[in-house]
Give the backbone structure.
Amino acid sequence: MTLLLTLDDGSVQRALTDAVELAREAAVAEAGAEQVGAHEGVYREDAVSATHLFEAAVPGYRGWCWSVTVAAAGPELPVTVSEVVLTPGREALVAPKWVPWERRVRPGDLGVGDIFPTEDDDPRLVPAYLQSDDPAVEEVALEAGLGRVHVLSRYGRQEAATRWRGGEFGPRSDMARSAPESCGTCGFYLSLAGSMRAAFGVCGNEISPADGRVVNVEYGCGAHSEIHVETTSSVPVAELVYDDSQLDMEPVREPADS
């Protein structure tokens, strides 16, 4: 890798560009002569500083460079070393971008005893504000889902609906495409309540691969309640044909006249 960037003209910039040996000495002092390779280029940081790059001969750091930043406060002042660091080059193997743990968790990762708290501003949830001192009102509110601290927001319901429809138990799955009928006409289909009722329910057929799962109304499988299969003999029965060439023939004797 070679980085050759033109620096602005001027005595300070020329001094910074020419400070290759000063930068090398700093890198050697930091890492040792055996780990500092060829000079690979220099680039400007600002008006009074520049960074020299040296190949890093460090085991396990192929493609990395020693970056030595040098600076000069003015034309008549000496060039000094600001810092020496090991930095990745264009072909260096580096760790992937860090992602917070709460965004790394995926469906199926949560195990027994694991805790995964929701964020305070989770857009999928909204507060349930209804509170009353009337037990009858509280009973109705609890049944409708309003007695909880949070309920699904419109965004949360749409997100869930999109995920369920495009999942394993949606209308585009292989099972649904080969099914003779859809869940919406099946006796084992248990509709959800609320706004999800029109499109989703739960399968109650233990034979079905979707038993106990949320299924789309257009999903289907071979265990539909209204499927009837005609029971006929597995051996085709054709019209009986007699081959008289294989029969023994005897003439019929006429009875004697008495």
